[in-house]
Structure formats: structure tokens, C-alpha cells
Amino acid sequence: MVVVIVRAIILYFVLLVSMRIMGKGELGELQPFDLVVSLTLAELAVMPMEDLGAPLIHGFIAIATIMFMQCLISYITLKSDSARKVICGVPTVVIDHGEFNIKGMNKLRINASDVLGQMRLKGYCSVEEIDYLIMETNGQMSIIAPNPPSGIKCKRIPITTILDGKVMHGNFQKFNVSYKDFEKELKKAKLRTWQVLYGFVDENDKFVFYKR
Amino acid sequence: MKMVIISLIVLLAFIGLWVWFHFTWVEPVTSYYYEELDGLFNLIKNGQWSEAEEHMLIYSDKWQDVRGLWIYFINQNNVDDIDSSMKKLDVFVENRDGTMAQAELEHLKILFNIIKENECLSFENIM
User: How far apart (Å, rounded) are the C-alpha atoms in residues B75 and B27?
Assistant: First the structure.
């Protein structure tokens, strides 16, 4: 048992030194390869801690290898723009002035619901409030808007009527939205439900539809 | 760039350590035991027990030296297996039990061979 404690302490310091050498980027999990390193290092440190039969040096060698790969990849991405594009990817514009980038969303494997959730997290109630919503290479979404978030001023959150071409029947009942009005407005917009990526009723009871 | 060089130096140091260990302590030691145990096999087969006992003493002493270093680089379980097999062989030779001694000898050879195979850089080991 004492051996486990001693091994854990040694590996703790080895990891600490490795993380310091790899730099601050590693701590923030900035890029896909940073995440890979974090996951791998955690597993590598546990392996010799638990398996008393395995020499500590096996853990050290594995950690040293990952540390070198991390430093090398960081250096390459810093120096080469094309390598950075391959390793880290490029930011994707998900919303551009009210237009959903369906191709980009499919590539990122996110749906309208994920995008709306991110918008709400940043304090924006409506798609109309923002100019751009961009998925950054580190997986975070950033919003560029002409005005600060109106979240606290929002009278009511937008009531989703259609999401990814599916009518949200539950919301009509829950929020007392007239289905007849919805159908009328949809007809007026010359749209079918499957053609709509995101439809909602805004705070002024206006039906808004975003085409696929 | 500084960090790439530092991490490369650390990695190269470990690779250097592996090269030194492999070519100084794994290859020669496993080959030594593989050949010597063949000789011991013949001694046992011919019933030359006192000579076999003398050889066993030499092998055991050498093994203690090797073991002291191997435990830092090789999985403890593999080293323990050799330890136990060596002790068994010693007892069988001491009691002049030919059949058991020959069987244990072959087992010991396999254990050394496993170490040799596990430590070399081969496609099978990587996969």
C-alpha cells in the first residue's frame, strides 16, 4: 500500500513537470490535440500507479513520449498555417445574419437545438439579435452581435414551433399558441414544415421561420 | 522551440537508456542463459549431478545480479516467474530429480525467451 502512495507522489510530480513543459495551452484544453493529451496522460499516470508489477520507468517513458509529441505538434501548428488547419480545423460560421449554415452544421454534427442552447447560454434570446454565431476550433461557440445580449430584457423566451423540420406539438399546448395561426403563417410564408429548420413565436407573438 | 528540444532530449535520454539496457542486459543475458541451460540439460541427462549443482550455483549468483537491474525495467511478474522457476530448478537438481529438472529447465528457457521477445522492437510487440 505504501508503494502505491510513493508511486502516486512520484507520478504526480512527473505529470506536473510535464504539464509545465507543455505550457498553459494544455490546461485550457484549447485544441483537439490538447484534449487527446489530457485524456492520454491521465490514463498513463494511473497505469503504473495501480499495477505494482509494472516498473515506474514504463510510465515515465510513455509520459515523455506524449510530452514530446505535444510540444512538437504545438510547434508545428504555431509555425505552419496549413498544418494548423489540418490538426486544429477551421472555425465554422453557423449563423450568418439570420441564415443557418446547414452544410456547416451537418459537418459539425450539431442541430438547431444545440445552436439555440448556445445562444441562450450567451444571453441571446433570438436569432435576429445576432450577426454571426461561429463554432471555434476549440469547440466553443462565439457570437458577434451589434448589441449586447438582451437576455434580461426578454419578455418571454421564443416558443419553438418547428425544429429541424419537426413540429413541436407539445409547445403549442404548453404555451397556448394557436395551431391554426401557425398553419396560416406557414402558408403565408409559402413553406412546408420539412423546409423549416427553426420556427418560433417571438416575444411579440410573431411567427418566424428559418428555412433549411 | 526550446520546449520541443527539452522534450526531445528527455525522450532521447529514455531511448538511450532502453538501447543500453537492451544491448547490455537483455540480449547478452538471455542468450547466455539460453546457451548455458542447454549445457545444464546435457549434464542432467548424463547424470553428472555434482557438475550440474556447481553450474546451478553460478547461474543463481549471476541471476541475482541481473535481477537487481531488471526489476527497474521489466515487468515484476516476469522477473518473479524466473525467480520461482530458478529456485524450483535448484531444488530439483539438489534432489537429483532428472525428469522434473529437465522440465523446469525447459520452462526457464521459455521464460528467458519471453523476456527477450517482449523487449525487442518488433511489429508483433507494437501491435
Answer: 16
User: Residue A38 has what pLDDT?
Assistant: 79
Q: Which domains does chain B have, with CATH numbers?
A: 26-126 (1.20.120.290)
- Record: contact B14-A52, CB cut-off 8 A: no
Chain A interface includes B7 (CB < 8 A): yes
Where do we find the cell 411579440? Answer: A204
Q: How many angstroms separate the Cα of A176 from the Cα of each of A55, A81, A173, B90?
A: 67, 53, 5, 89
Residue ranges of domains in chain A, CATH in brackets:
2-86 (no CATH), 90-152 (3.30.240.20), 155-212 (3.30.240.20)
Summarised one tens digit per residue, pLDDT across range A145-172 is 887 776 556 677 788 888 888 888 888 8
Contact A21 B7 (CB under 8 A): yes
- The pTM of the full predicted model, rounded to 2 decimals, is 0.69
Phi, psi of A183 (to 5 degrees): -60, -40
Nearest-angstrom CA–CA distance, A66 and A162: 47
What ipTM was reported for this prediction?
A: 0.79
